[in-house]
Automatic annotation (TrEMBL):
Its main location: membrane. One of its GO terms (biological process) is phospholipid biosynthetic process. Belongs to the bacterial diacylglycerol kinase family. It is found in: Cell membrane. Mn(2+), Zn(2+), Cd(2+) and Co(2+) support activity to lesser extents. The chain crosses the membrane at residues 54-77, 98-123. It comes from the Bacteria. GO terms for molecular function: ATP binding; kinase activity; metal ion binding. This is Diacylglycerol kinase. The lineage of its organism: Bacteria, Bacillati, Actinomycetota, Coriobacteriia, Coriobacteriales. Substrate binds at E71. The active site is at E71 (proton acceptor).
Amino acid sequence: MIPGSNRDHPTFVRSFGYALEGFVTAVTTERNIKVQLCVGAAAVVAGVVLRIDALSWVLVVLCIGLVIFAELVNTAIEAIVDLATQELHPLAKRAKDIAAASVFTLSITAAVVGVIVFARAIALY
């Protein structure tokens, strides 16, 4: 496709289809995304049970979305690195490790937010 041209560019609806296909691929092939989705679902259940307030819901939903986003980006980076080289190259390892560290950092941050939100909800329950 020529940059700036609409020729051969997928329709808006088709673009959503590609995004959904990518999400399904990640869920069916990547263990960590399944773990993140289960933890997110558990947070939603806990939020419903504890009847958290609207602002707490915003924080929980943002954290879930950001962690899943980071896991998807990490998966894409790993796939690109694997496409670029099949050998065990130090730069390939560095890229993969740093991408994984970004998910880890965000997951820890989300867990801290979850502890604060749910500890407050339990105290008010």
